[in-house]
Amino acid sequence: MLFLERIISLTFISDPATGRRRNAVSHDAILDATYVMLEEIGFDKLSLEGVAARAGVGKATIYRWWPNKSALVMEALLRAVEPMPAIGDSGSARGDLEEHIARLSQLLRGKSGRVVREMIALAQFDDDTMRIFNDSYLGPRRAALVAVLKRGALAGEFRSDLDLNLVFDLLYAPLLQRLLTGSADFEERQVKAQLDLVLGSISPTPALQ
To answer: With contact defined as beta carbons under 8 Å apart, do 46 and 73 qualify?
Structure first.
């Protein structure tokens, strides 16, 4: 009985939005087909009918699991983006944040940056895609960095009166702004200057300029 339950759990996954059970093989085939077709023909020409034919499923299956094309494409992009760089625990919260942001900036120079840019653009289409982006991409990254900032505040590295979500925005927003506008690249010198400015301003005794 336990073996059978294990097989079932590997074959079906739960849709967090609807609670419906998804067949994992069909689910993966749909997302694979979506991403490949997005690369081949772009978002505008992509159709749910085409994805269904490419994945070998019925169009009704896609409509049961995703509310619209934008939500489907967002999930496909989320699966393609590289994982968030791990945040270490070296004993220095500032050092851990500096290393993380430096590694993240390196990722954003390549394929990961292109995928994130596409996700941000897609998130503007409707509330569903914005929610998926915030819950599945930005939310976990916010939570991870806020945890490190809390660790630093408890250790006396950072001020204890901080709005940590605002600090996260100050750390991430410049990277995303560069990514979206192409106004500057991700040179190590620029990233270091940004980190010095933000992390220096939240230290208990900010350095005089």
So the answer is: yes
CA separation, residue 112 to residues 83, 136, 176, 177 (Å): 9, 15, 12, 15
The per-residue pLDDT for range 50-75, each reduced to its tens digit, is 999 999 999 999 999 998 999 999 99
Q: What is the pLDDT of residues 21-60, one digit of tens each?
A: 568 899 999 999 999 999 999 999 999 999 999 999 999 9
Q: Pairing relation of β-strands 12-14 and 21-23?
A: antiparallel
- Partnered with residue 21 across adjacent β-strands are 14
Q: What is the pTM of this model?
A: 0.79
User: Above 50 in pLDDT, residue 121?
Assistant: yes
CB contact at 8 A, 101 and 175: yes
- Tell me, what's the pLDDT at 12? 42
Which DSSP category does 137 fall into? I
- Write out the H or E segment, with its range, that includes residue 154: helix 139-154
Q: Which two tokens stand for residue 90?
A: 């070296």
Torsion angle of the four alpha carbons 94, 97, 124, 115, in this order, in degrees rounded to the nearest 10: 160
Task: Please give the sequence-ordered ranges of beta strands (E in DSSP) within 3-60, or none if there are none.
Answer: 12-14, 21-23
In the chain, the domains with their CATH numbers are 11-68 (1.10.10.60), 93-201 (1.10.357.10)
- Residue 186's identity, in one-letter code, is F
Is 157:93 a contact under the CB 8 Å cutoff?
yes
